[in-house]
Write a structure and sequence with these properties.
This protein is of the alpha+beta class and 451 residues long. Helices cover 43% and strands 23% of the residues.
């Protein structure tokens, strides 16, 4: 059932992204008088087709990793004399540029609409108040202290955990100073501090932003109270129930949930004597954690329980309500920030400042799409917007076979007054195809390496 859900939500996610992108090309091509022969979602064998009154064939194909709009073009076959005026290659270069650019622009528009919907519904988050500072860390060097709220990073406001994470993401791989603006609890006074970065987190495959800074965010104390027990897990076999509170493990007190988690993680396959409180009564049992490999390949213990999380204090919750125009402005701003961040990340990856292991393919997209959908509609819409921006930016890269490559050729034609020679275009397409296949192979390799 879970696999079916993952496949289904992935197809929906990719289908929306591809359909919007290709519709951008289609819509502008029609308005420029170009005859569209086929509008396909997916590649390969057709699963379902139909035609409209203009003779355009619409197709849903077997391989859902993309799509295309096929237009009448003399370079791809003979064109009847009566249809020459509707051929794409006969259109003025500015119209061809408009048709090609329309796909990525449609993806930008989708992201703006998605964020506008989210912002109209209201936005909330937790205040970035420091819960701990690690000695010798970047945060320690900057003089950050427990209880301070990080108001801004490098002059950019950070009202929530999410906003702080976004600002830190933009500094991955950087060398130089990072500036913090903080305030003490209950005070309006702002304090400035800074610390030095040296290729910050550049080697980490899955960067821990707060950990790399040397801080943790404040959260209420979490007592070791079981909220859920996974079926057929070590906890279920040991008889643990929802509501149980772990008192001691092998005689060692477990005052907080993380004390219990770390104790279990360090003992895969080892027998643990437990003391529990259940409905005010003392219970004892024995549990043997299963061993699982973590991201680094090390074996860690798992027992199959989830914790009952306490609510955040009201003063730690930030609510943002915006009207229609404010939401639209915020949506445009967020889309612009993500575009800038994506371009910056590509640049850093090419410079070797970000590990190429961060490149993800369809398997990772499927996992994240499934997880976001399970978290709720808002989470999925946010992920859809993020992917839409990424798709738009990647398609605008000046690589032949991508939209950006076509735009490069047409821009050169516009400036030179004549088309780029076909031999040069053909060579460019071959090199571009080689690059894209290489990137796809690396992304798939990274996906399988994460399994």
């Amino acid at each position: 059932m879970d696999l079916a859900f993952t496949i289904g939500i992935t197809l929906i996610t990719l289908g929306v992204l591809v359909a919007v992108h290709e519709y951008g090309h289609f819509w502008v091509a029609r308005r420029c008088g170009v005859k569209v022969l086929r509008f396909s979602i997916g590649f390969g064998k057709s699963l379902y087709t139909w035609h409209d009154r203009h003779g355009t064939e619409y197709c849903i194909a077997m391989i859902p990793l993309g799509g295309y709009v096929k237009m009448l073009d003399e370079r791809e076959g003979d064109v009847a004399a009566a249809d020459l005026e509707h051929a794409f290659n006969r259109k003025p270069v500015l119209q061809r540029i408009a048709v090609v650019a329309a796909g990525p622009l449609a993806n930008f528009a989708l992201a703006i609409v998605a964020y506008w919907i989210l912002f109209m519904g209201g936005e909330s988050g937790y205040a970035p108040v420091i819960g701990s500072v690690q000695s010798g860390s970047v945060a320690d060097a900057a003089g950050l202290r427990v209880g301070q709220e990080i108001v801004a990073v490098d002059g950019e406001e950070t009202p929530t955990w999410q906003a702080l994470s976004f600002r830190l993401l933009d500094r991955i791989g950087d060398t130089g100073s990072i500036r913090f603006t903080v305030r003490e609890s209950g005070s309006d006074m702002l304090y400035q501090s800074e610390a030095a970065l040296q290729r910050w987190l550049s080697e980490q495959e899955e960067p821990d932003l707060f950990g790399g800074l040397g801080i943790s965010m404040y959260t209420p104390e979490v007592p070791p109270v079981v909220d859920e027990v996974v079926a057929d897990s070590p906890a279920a076999r040991a008889g643990l129930q929802a509501g149980d509170r772990v008192l001691r493990a092998d005689g060692i007190p477990m005052p907080q949930w993380m004390d219990w988690v770390e104790y279990v993680r360090e003992r895969p396959g080892q027998r643990i004597e437990l003391e529990l409180s259940r409905d005010g009564q003392l219970q004892t049992t024995t549990i043997v954690p299963d061993g699982e490999a973590d991201a680094s390949g090390a074996m860690v213990g798992r027992v199959g329980v989830a914790v009952a999380m306490p609510a955040m204090p009201p003063e730690m919750v930030r609510q943002f309500q915006r009207g229609p125009l404010q939401s639209l402005g915020a949506a445009v701003t967020r889309t612009g920030e993500l575009t800038s961040f994506t371009l910056s990340s590509i640049k850093k990856m090419l410079q070797g400042l970000i590990s190429p292991k961060n490149l993800s393919g369809p398997i990772t997209i499927a996992k994240v799409a499934s997880a976001s959908a399970k978290s709720g509609l808002e989470s999925w819409i946010g992920f859809l917007a993020l992917l839409s921006v990424s798709l738009a930016v990647l398609n605008l890269l000046p690589i032949p076979v991508l939209d950006g490559g076509h735009l490069l050729y047409y821009t050169m034609e516009l400036l030179a007054g004549r088309p780029v020679p076909e031999k040069i275009q053909a060579l460019g397409y071959q090199l571009g195809l080689f690059m894209i296949l290489g990137i796809m192979a690396l992304a798939l390799y990274n996906d399988f390496a994460r399994l």
